[in-house]
């Protein structure tokens, strides 16, 4: 296992495990951390890995959003666009990794953390996990392609309802919407649950896994390519608008 401080990387012949390691900060996503996730994946594209497990340290949060202190300094349109492009590139490393990437949600996945979870090919979760693309509560839209991923996963109408409301989904509802593939029983050992779940992948031939992922990724990329420019322009406009910063001020005040 290698430790880059905020990202733990453990690789075997068949499984690559990435663990966000900022439990004291609710596994908040700094831009540097997102870069490291992208780098860890891009450096292993030609290996014999059959699946990737992406999770968070601790038992409270998968990733409870972006690093607020870092994001607070991003104010101009140019800074906002650069932040969006940088985060989107890191999540693209997940979307287009050549084998399935499984988000193992050990707790809350909110805001940018929900975008990270949605970039994964599928998600499994603890019983207390929640998924929430809650950006609208701060008068902003998704930055890194997560809204597009949600549209890809559940369709226009259902995705629009969730994105506009900013509603947080508990594990059972996310399972019903097929946003979670499986949920660990309350009180069950999540590590054991993960290990049993991935047998369905590690037991298959590498060519099969790569073949199906290539097809699925091509569909996702087509939608991302079609919608990213619009999504990014609207994000930049919303992020730099006074309504967003007033909502942030009110959140901090509470």
CATH architecture type: Alpha-Beta Complex
Number of helices: 11
Query: Please, what is the average pLDDT?
Result: 95
- Tell me the number of structural domains: 1
The percent range for helix content is: 40-55%
- Do you know the CATH topology? 2-enoyl-CoA Hydratase, Chain A, domain 1
Low-confidence stretches: none
Order of strands across the widest beta sheet?
1-2-3-4-6-8-11
Outline, from the CA principal axes? globular
What's the CATH superfamily, by name?
2-enoyl-CoA Hydratase, Chain A, domain 1
CATH class: Alpha Beta
Element order, helices and strands? EEEHEEHHEEHEEHHEHEHHHH
Q: Which structural class matches the secondary elements?
A: alpha/beta
Major sheet description = 7 strands, mixed
Structural overview:
This protein is an alpha/beta fold. The protein has helices at residues 31-42, 68-72, 77-95, 112-119, 146-154, 156-165, 171-176, 190-197, 199-202, 206-239, 242-253; strands spanning 2-3, 7-11, 15-20, 51-56, 61-63, 101-105, 108-110, 122-125, 130-132, 169-170, 182-183. It has a single domain (2-186), classed as 2-enoyl-CoA Hydratase, Chain A, domain 1, CATH 3.90.226. It is built from 11 helices and 11 strands. The strands form 2 sheets. Strands 1-2-3-4-6-8-11 form a 7-stranded mixed sheet. Strands 5-7-9-10 form a 4-stranded mixed sheet. α3 (77-95) runs antiparallel to α10. It is globular and about 50 Å long.
